[in-house]
Specification:
The protein contains four helices and no strands. By secondary structure, it is an all-alpha fold. It has one domain.
């Protein structure tokens, strides 16, 4: 059975820019819910309140933020040793 949250998640995953904006918390959830409401209602086949979509977006944004933070930590742990070098000089010689 399709739920509002699953349909909202599918919709957001189809639009990477929205996924990024949600993860960063820079998007107005109420305005976004008003915009996507007709598509969610069409997919679900019944009336959907904006508040339900806002809650689904809020839960999804929290999850996306957690995933992004967790990925960064995982990458940093797997980097290993880092060597930083400065004042390097590059010489190029012409073969004569």
């Amino acid at each position: 059975m399709k739920t509002i949250s699953s349909i909202v998640e599918q919709y957001i995953k189809k639009k990477p820019f929205l996924q990024s904006a949600l993860a960063q918390g820079i998007i107005n959830l109420t305005s976004l819910s008003r915009i996507i409401n007709p598509e969610i209602e069409q997919e679900l086949g019944k009336d959907v309140r904006n508040g339900a979509i806002v809650m689904a977006l809020k839960r999804l944004s929290d999850d996306l933020e957690f995933r992004a933070t967790h990925k960064i930590i995982k990458v940093l742990k797997n980097i290993g040793e880092i060597t930083v070098r400065s004042s390097l000089t590059d010489f190029t010689f012409l073969v004569s």
